[in-house]
Design goal:
Length: 456
């Protein structure tokens, strides 16, 4: 189970920026503390059956503004919600790990998968035989034989979204590949494919292919250039380079390099747009200046670069991922893509990303630096925050997220952040009129519970 507030706290401390998260509400208590423990147990799974509100009072109070307590229901021991049509899928751990499905309107459990072999990295909405569905990535252990040691495999398990009590519980797709030493945290899953270590499963493929995500460093002149893997787009694997090379005879000598490098599955370079500039001292603006946030979005790669040291102004540089040529994608070009943030230079942390379903707004964050990109307008707005921000979910108008100090929403049109009045929670998933989040066991005095409600 995942405690999103612990995720926020776990982010590395970054650039100290003196800005403020906007608070809402007029009470005297300005402490957006973690949720208070309630006395009521979560309601059991099942039909609402003329119950006015199946959420216990403490749970209904957690709904963010705009969601109706009378449509609220809870399911104990369920986490990581994903909406597919009028069904919400989640993960359950007891009595064994499994995927479960609930009717969004009633909260009735309509289906449960066969027990899963191990921990799940995450769950994602995917296409299964051309139709909406759900998939998870797990590891499976083979018993081996008298000669070979037991081995493990990445296992991709997928089910169609139109499940019901008559649906088979075994997965419609079960695709495996040998694992490497990659942790679950390093798995990258987007509309362009599922990358687990050095194994890539492209959309619609029936087997993983081995790819080289750690080739020999790019060499430019006298320098090996550091690169950080950024994501997959079509037939290429993208890395972002941000290297500072100092010659041994003094800090004023050497060069700095930034840009994208595209490689094929074997690790051979396809194109790059890396540029270099002469160093002008250890604190050279080019070498160690304002942050650059690299993001892979569908068929495109983007760098969001600050143009000043106060992080007040930014510029966008889009390229076609297949060719490296400059591009100007529209919201329609990006709609439906699942962005993946690379590792930014200077701040040296992985960028978090969310894209609105209509493709109009990209939300990117690292530590306290959070930005809203309006794709068609080509503008970037900074979100004010004193805390490390984590985006949880997004719709066409709003980002839902959390900090170590509480939950918030961000208006995508204005980039204004508004703290949710405690004990209101953020949303782990939102689709249309439906929103869902998980309440941790130490907050309501019971097992982790899935909470689902509709907008008022």
């Amino acid at each position: 189970m995942v405690d999103k507030r612990r995720r926020a706290v776990a982010l590395a401390a970054g650039i100290a920026l003196g800005v403020t998260l906007v608070a809402c509400g007029g009470g005297d208590d300005d402490d957006s503390s973690p949720l208070e423990q309630g006395d009521d147990d979560p309601a059991p799974r099942g039909e609402k059956d003329d119950v006015e509100n199946v959420c216990p009072a403490d749970t209904a109070a957690l709904l963010p503004e705009g969601f109706d307590p009378e449509t609220c229901w809870t399911a104990p021991d369920a986490d990581e919600p994903v909406f597919v049509g009028e069904t919400v899928f989640a993960l359950a751990s007891e009595p064994a790990p499994a995927v479960v499905a609930f009717d969004v309107a009633t909260g009735a459990q309509v289906w449960e998968s066969e027990p899963l072999p191990s921990e799940v990295t995450r769950m994602a909405a995917v296409e299964v035989d051309g139709e909406p569905g759900i998939a998870v990535l797990v590891t499976e252990s083979d018993e081996g034989d008298a000669v070979n040691e037991p081995s493990q495999s990445w296992s991709y398990l997928a089910w169609p979204g139109d499940v019901d009590e008559e649906s088979p519980s075994e997965p419609a797709e079960h695709i495996t590949a040998p694992t490497d030493d990659t942790s679950f945290a390093e798995v990258r899953w987007s509309d362009q494919g599922l990358l687990a270590g050095d194994q890539l499963l492209r959309p619609g493929a029936d087997e993983f292919e081995q790819v080289n995500t750690a080739p020999e460093p790019m060499v430019m002149g006298d320098y090996d250039i550091d690169e950080s893997f950024g994501g997959v787009s079509g037939d290429v694997l993208l890395s972002y380079l941000s290297g500072v090379a100092w010659l041994p005879d003094g800090p004023d000598n050497g060069e700095s390099f930034v840009g994208w490098l595209a490689r094929d599955a074997a690790g051979e370079a396809v194109w790059d747009n890396v540029i270099s500039g002469a160093n002008e001292g250890e604190n050279a603006l080019f070498a160690e200046g304002p942050a650059r946030m690299p993001v892979v979005v569908g068929d495109y790669a983007l760098v969001i670069a600050a143009t000043d040291e106060t992080y007040a102004e930014f510029e966008l540089a889009w390229v076609d991922a297949a060719t490296g040529e400059a591009a100007e994608p529209t919201a329609d070009d990006l709609a439906g893509a699942v962005p993946v943030g690379g590792v930014a230079d200077v701040i040296a942390g992985e960028v978090g990303t969310l894209l609105s379903p209509d493709g109009q707004h990209l939300f990117a964050w690292w530590s306290t630096l959070a930005l809203v990109v309006d794709v068609d307008a080509g503008t970037v707005q900074r979100v004010s925050s004193d805390f490390d921000i984590v985006g949880e979910s997004i719709d066409d108008t709003t980002v839902y997220g959390s900090t170590e100090n509480g939950s918030f929403t961000i208006d995508l049109a204005t980039a204004e952040a508004t703290a949710l009045d405690a004990p209101q929670e953020s949303l782990d998933a939102v689709a249309g009129d439906n929103g869902a989040f998980t309440v941790a066991d130490d907050e309501l005095g019971g097992p982790d519970s899935l909470v689902v409600a509709r907008r008022s």
